[in-house]
Amino acid sequence: MLAITFFLCVGLNLLFMTALAAWRRPRHPDPGPLDSYPRVTVQLPIFNELYVVERLVNASCALDWPRDRLEIQVLDDSTDETRFLVARLVRRWTEQGFNISHIRRLDREGFKAGALEAGLAEAQGEFVAVFDADFVPPPGFLKGTIPYFRYERVGFVQARWGHLNQSYSLLTELQSVIIDAHFFVDQVARNRGGFFMNFNGTAGVWRREAIIDAGGWEHDTLAEDLDLSYRAQLRGWEAVYLPNLVVEAELPVTVSAYRAQQRRWAAGSLACAIKLLPKVMQAPISVGVKLQAALHLMGYGSHACLLVMFLLQPFLLTYSARYSHQTPVSPFWLIVATVPAIAPGIYLGYAQWRANGRLTARIPYIFGASVLGAGIMLTIVCALARTLFGKPFAFERTPKYGIANHSDVWDGKRYALGVDPLLALEMLLACFSFGSLAYAVALKSWSTFFYNGYFLLACSSSSPRASFSSMCPRRLLCSRPPHRAIATPDSA
User: Fold this and answer.
1) Cα gap 308→93, rounded to integer Å
2) Which pLDDT score, from 0 to 100, does residue 478 have?
3) Least C-beta-crowded within 10 Å: which of 38, 53, 128, 354?
4) In 421-480, which residue ranges form alpha helices assigned H by DSSP?
5) Cβ neighbours, 10 Å, residue 361
6) Looking at the predicted structure, is the pLDDT value of residue 327 above 70?
7) Where are any strands of DSSP class E within 195-276?
8) What are phi and psi of 254, to 5 degrees?
9) Could you tell me which of 151, 172, 137 has the C-alpha nearest to residue 408?
10) pLDDT in tens, 384-428
11) Does the reported pTM lie above 0.85?
């Protein structure tokens, strides 16, 4: 009953957020172009990014901003050849007149948060932009974000994530659907609705004063970006989200990398909920803001509910076969069953319409994204359980391979992740789901046949090395021409 109630709340909230994103206007109108250029620090936190660091540094040095007002920090915790490549890049750009520094630490204490905090101590800028290694900032990024800091209480400005390699494989297409929903619905609705929203860890700019006032970067969770965002907003700082300013990024190209990323995000989100929800509930803010904050921070709990519903399949089938013909279904239960079923489709569909200008061609990917999300439910639930019982994860980076075109390959490159130990258990879940599907056929319960088939597809989507490119011909994977790598400044 608890799982059904939670699903109903999540479904209703998805519909509410989609409507809010569609009709609510921005709370911070465009302030117009700059009349002066403040000093800005660009921080590039990296760890063993041999295949993408040059692209990142080159794009950062191509930012359209006066050189005497721009500082670039490469916060390099690398232990492989990446550190030598960075040293060469920094030397090359320094010789061209850029204020760029190569900052290394004796250890990786605090991981990304620790690196950002160390860099902030040496930073010269009034504003601090952050880009992860797999991002490629466009030249006009700073001119698009900095003007919004004319609003005195704006603490950070977040841009939308784009996708360098969206059409590379079926996996990257499905990830793009999920990420687009976050950036076209969640972030728009939270920002325009006056709710707390999160800095996404990259492709954004902070007011340095806001970072310090909120207590600085902390590394007691795996989601330092979400943590700082909420602490700053609890201190009265405001956020601005710019859906029309896009920073392209590389999507993970293997299921193992995607699972690792989602595991880290889920664990970090719950850790932030444990740390921050009591403060949110005690803060002098509206009930609506508190409710949305709780749903936001506890969002990955839907995977736990999904797992419960999955395990109850045989019992639900038995109950339906024995009693459904005796007891008519009330309108209330029809609503309870229908809302969670249709809400994700509307949510994802609206985002795809906004992202692509069309919907029909994206419907298979919308369904596939839903299957992919359900397929990692055990991974997410285990991450939540470890966090809940105080068994923290080590920071697990997402491998990047410099994939931008169909001709790019990742096989044979470094940083590949090993087989997830949960894989065997997930295969057992797939067998369980197949049994449930066969049971539905035996009972001639055609109303639940597709429901069980959905779970079977989900549980079968966890191949340890799959990039999904082997599941269908390349021509069927591409709904648009592949993105091309962004042009970078000529080498010295």
Assistant:
1) 55
2) 41
3) 38
4) 423-442, 446-459, 474-477
5) 11
6) no
7) 204-207, 238-249
8) -125, 150
9) 172
10) 999 999 887 777 788 899 988 888 888 778 888 877 778 788 888
11) yes
pLDDT tens per residue, range 65-101: 999 999 999 999 999 999 999 999 999 999 999 999 9
Task: State how far Cα 226 lies from the chain centre.
Answer: 11
Sequence-distant (≥ 6) Cβ neighbours of residue 268 within 8 angstroms: 221, 222, 223, 224, 226, 227
Q: By C-alpha distance, which of 462, 459, 403, 453 is closest to 430?
A: 459
- By CB atoms closer than 10 A (0-12, 13-18, 19+), residue 371 is middle
Inter-helix orientation angle 363-375/446-459, to 10°: 70
Taking the C-alpha atoms of residue 436 and residue 324, their distance in angstroms, rounded to an integer, is 18
In degrees rounded to 5, what are phi and psi of residue 336?
-60, -35
pLDDT grade, residue 172 (50/70/90)? very high
CB atoms within 10 A of CB 394: 7
450, 428 in Cβ contact below 8 A? no
Instruction: Please answer whether residues 240 and 250 qualify as being in contact, where contact means their C-beta atoms are separated by less than 8 angstroms.
Output: no
Query: Side chain identity at 464, as an amino acid letter?
Result: P
d(CA 313, CA 429): 12
Percent of the chain with pLDDT over 70: 87
How far does Cα 447 stand from its chain's mean position?
A: 34
pLDDT in tens, 246-304: 999 999 998 889 989 999 999 999 999 999 999 999 999 999 999 999 999 999 999 99
**Known catalytic membership, residue 225:** yes
CA angle 180, 373, 136 (to 5 degrees): 35
Give one DSSP letter per residue of 141-196, joined into a string.
Answer: HHHHHGGGGGSTTEEEEEEEEEETTGGGSHHHHHHHHHHHHIIIIIHHHHHHTT--
For tokens 């709780």, the residue is 294
CA 192/CA 205 separation, integer angstroms: 18
Amino acid residing at 382:
C
Identify the active-site residue in 76, 132, 186, 225: 225
Residue in this structure with the two tokens 């602490």, named with its chain if needed: 231
454 or 431, greater pLDDT: 431
Contact of 300 with 384, CB cutoff 8 Å: yes
Please tell me the distance from the alpha carbon of residue 322 to that of residue 324, in angstroms, as a whole number.
6
**Strands of the sheet with 238-249, listed across from one edge:** 100-103, 70-76, 40-46, 127-130, 204-207, 154-163, 238-249, 135-136
* Integer Cα distance of 160 and 243 in angstroms: 5
181-194: average pLDDT? 97
Task: Please return the burial class of 27, using the count of CB atoms within 10 Å of its CB with bins 0-12, 13-18 and 19+.
Answer: middle
Q: Which of 76, 77, 186, 420 is catalytic?
A: 77
Cα 118 to chain centroid distance, Å, stands at: 25
Asked if 56 and 63 touch (Cβ cutoff 8 Å), the reply is no
- Bridge partners, 154 (sequence order): 238
Could you report the per-residue pLDDT of 119-129, keeping only the tens digit for each? Answer: 999 999 999 99
